[in-house]
Each structure stands twice: as structure tokens, then as C-alpha cells.
Amino acid sequence: MRDEISEHTTNRLSLYVRFLNELDEKGVRTVSSSVLAGQFGLNAALIRKDLAHFGDLGVRGVGYVVKDLRRELQAILGLDRKLAVSIIGAGNLGLALADYPGFRREGFRIVALFDTLREKVGQESRTGVRIYDIQELREVAHREGITIAVIAVPAASAQQVVSTVVEAGIRAVLNFSPGALRVPPDVKLKSVDLTVSLESLSFYLASVESGGRG
Amino acid sequence: MRDEISEHTTNRLSLYVRFLNELDEKGVRTVSSSVLAGQFGLNAALIRKDLAHFGDLGVRGVGYVVKDLRRELQAILGLDRKLAVSIIGAGNLGLALADYPGFRREGFRIVALFDTLREKVGQESRTGVRIYDIQELREVAHREGITIAVIAVPAASAQQVVSTVVEAGIRAVLNFSPGALRVPPDVKLKSVDLTVSLESLSFYLASVESGGRG
DNA sequence: CCATGTGAAAGTCTTCACAGCG
DNA sequence: CGCTGTGAAGACTTTCACATGG
């Protein structure tokens, strides 16, 4: 893990892990870079480059041993530790994310929701994730060992919330609010902008109509 | 709109529009590329390049006229038409997306939810989006002029669902299911992989610990 | 022989630096 | 003068092509 790994690469590693899980369940023993490439519509050399960052994971003439590669990538991605995650904002989106089965399946533990509304605090999501007052964030985060926060609050309060999260000692934030957020350089902020995603489709449709392509 | 516009560029255009809306509300008349750059942590030249794709939108020595640039970008992104959107999958995530205020605010109309479960069909989301049987997709899509579908179903049914969507004549798809989906070349598929996003944070935390950076 | 690992080439995106124009 | 628009340079990412080794 010497040189700098790009986010493009790490995102693809996640995809590889998921597919390796499937292969392992099916009892497949080895897989080649070209099979992986076919699965994801990528170039085989790119996949080998991605994996070669982490040492000689493959076997020449054979490919990659599914179980070994899977274990290796899980360790690299830190998925061998059941990270504790909290969701800030118990609105529709926050509640949906708290109960999203994909997070659990990949080894995350959603341990708490936070909100400011009195009538929500003390309640639970459908799958039983408890809603705390945001003021309890620091304490609960410490107690539960929360290392990742997911922000699902309205744009107007997002900056305030992210600051609270950072003050509570959380260094990794997944943000679903629109708009720019500022975090210290030692905090990793990843934003998913739902509106931008939809608008890129709108652009595609507009440009198809006007004769471009998109 | 001659040469090919990259998705990086169109994604940023969405951000610019949102900020221009704010500026316009505040009564700001003009804005320079360096102010925009500061807002988003980007390089000013990049912003000028993004905008220059679409003609000479700026005024030398002055900057960009907020109202004009906003209108121009909205037209480019196709946001001047209130596109009709449907959500496939009335689970937690689908319902949350159907009621997500950000979509409406940016000019989209969420006109229908679709599901296969009898007990859901005929119900409505909190804000009153009706749930139809997926079998009605073609008819409702045609009647309501739906041009964008959002996929929020479990991974196992996603490929089947996306095929149904394409058969109904919808050419733009926003996918929230994990895993690779195949669509014809004239269909634009944009995927948001929630698990990959969380895992990139996990990688960051793991690499910080092991002395790298991430 | 076969598939990996990897320099070199190609392609893409961003930044620099400055000419051009209101 | 100030800020846009842009050619050229630089940085980053992907693909090619092949040497390497089980």
C-alpha cells in the first residue's frame, strides 16, 4: 500500500469485492482479469493495474484465487472490522438509509440515528435503529465507536451538522445534502448529490433532442 | 453545443445553477469565475472552460450576469421543462426518493411510484405520489409523459426492472441498485452505488490507520 | 501455454499563463 | 484595468503490447 491510490481505483475495488462474494458463493475457485473486465465493462489491464497496487495478488497463467483476493480486498477496504455508522437526520431519507440492507450486507453496523425533533427522539426505525438527540452525538459516538457519519438533513442545516460531527471526533462523512460543505483536511467527505444525478439525465435528454448526443 | 461535453462538466453545471439561484434570490447581479471557483473549491479556469463550451456567456472585465447565466444553464440542462419522473420500487428508499423535496425544487415532477406488491399498489407516498403496479408502467409512462425512471429495487430484480423500463420507452435511468446493469446504447444509465460510497470512507479510515493517507 | 504485471503510448481532464476585449 | 476565453503545459487515467514466470 505504498503509493497513492486514486478514488477511481478504490471505488472499483468495492465492485470487485461484491462480485468475488458472488463467485465464492457459487464455488468458483479462480477468476481472471478478463472475466472481471467483462463483468464490469472495463479493460482487463485496468483491473490488473488496480490490483497490482497491493502486491502480486495473482498467479500467472491462472488468474486470481477468489477466496484469497476477496480476503485481501476486504482487508484493504477495511471491511474486516464491522465499522459502526450513524445517520444524522431521521427524515424520510435518513430512515431509509438506516434500514438499507446493502450496508449491513457489506459489513457495516448502523448503530444510531440522530435528529433534533423531540417527537422523533426515542423512537426507532423499522429495523430498530434508535433515534437520539443530536446533542448526544459525542457521547453515543464514543460509546458505540462510531467512525462514519451519514448526513441526511436539509441543506440549510448541513454545514452546522457536519461541524458537530467533526467535533464529535468522526473523521469520515458521507453527505447526501446538496451544496458545498467545509471540513478540516484530516476529515474525508464524500458527497452524493441526488439532484445533480437527476440533472445529468435531464441534460442527456435535452442534448439527444437537440441533435447532440450526451 | 457542438463538441462533446463530459459528464464532469455537466455535473458541475448543476452545481453552478443551484448557486446562481441563491445569488439571484439575494439580488446579486454578476458573478466572476473566481467567486464561483471559491464557492466550490475549483480552479477558475475550469469554470470558464465549462461555460465556454456553450458560447460566450460572460462579459470581459465584468464576469457573468447571474440571471442570464442561470437561464442559459437551465436551458442547457433541460431544466426549463418540468420533466416527469417515476420511481420504480416503493420500498423505504423508493418512498423516500419520491418525497425528496430537492427533486421538486429543481423542477422535476415525481408523478408515479411502481411496485409489484398487491398491498402497496393503490397506496400513496406521504406527499401523495400514487403507487401503481409495475405492469401499468408502459401505460402510465405514456399518459404522464415520463422520461426518467429511478430504480430503487433489490439487486436481484434490478436487471429485469430496467429492461421493463426500457421497453416502456424510457431513455434515462437513475439506478440505486448495486451491481452492473445492461442497457441499450441509446439509453442513458447513471448509477449511484450507496455501498461503494460508504466503502470508500472505510478505505480512507483503514489507510489513515496504516499510515497511508487515502 | 496462459494470464499476470508493467513500461510506454494514448486519451482525458485540469491548471497555467496570457492574449483579447468590454 | 479586470475578467473572460483559450492554446499550451501538466497531471491524471486508461489502454496497449509484451516480457515474465508459474
How would the blueprint of this fold be written?
2 copies of one chain form a homodimer.
Chain A: H1 7-25, E1 30-31, H2 33-40, H3 44-52, E2 64-65, H4 66-76, E3 84-88, H5 92-98, H6 101-105, E4 109-115, E5 131-133, H7 137-144, E6 146-151, H8 155-167, E7 172-175, E8 188-191, H9 194-209
Parallel strand pairs in A: 3-4, 3-6, 4-5, 6-7, 7-8
Antiparallel strand pairs in A: 1-2
Chain A binds a DNA duplex (22 and 22 nucleotides) through helix 3.
Write up what this structure looks like.
2 copies of one chain form a homodimer. By secondary structure, chain A is of the alpha/beta class. Chain A has 2 domains: 7-76, Arc Repressor Mutant, subunit A (Orthogonal Bundle), CATH 1.10.10; 84-197, Rossmann fold. Helix content of chain A is 45%, strand content 15%. Chain A has 9 helices and 8 strands. The first copy, chain A, has helices spanning 7-25, 33-40, 44-52, 66-76, 92-98, 101-105, 137-144, 155-167, 194-209; strands spanning 30-31, 64-65, 84-88, 109-115, 131-133, 146-151, 172-175, 188-191. In chain A, helix 1 (7-25) runs antiparallel to helix 4 and helix 2 crosses helix 3. The two termini of chain A are 37 Å apart. At the A-B interface, helix 1, helix 5, helix 6, strand 6 and strand 7 of A face helix 1, helix 5, helix 6, strand 6 and strand 7 of B. Chain A binds a DNA duplex (22 and 22 nucleotides) through residues 6, 8-9, 32-34, 42-46, 48-49, 51-52, 56-64.
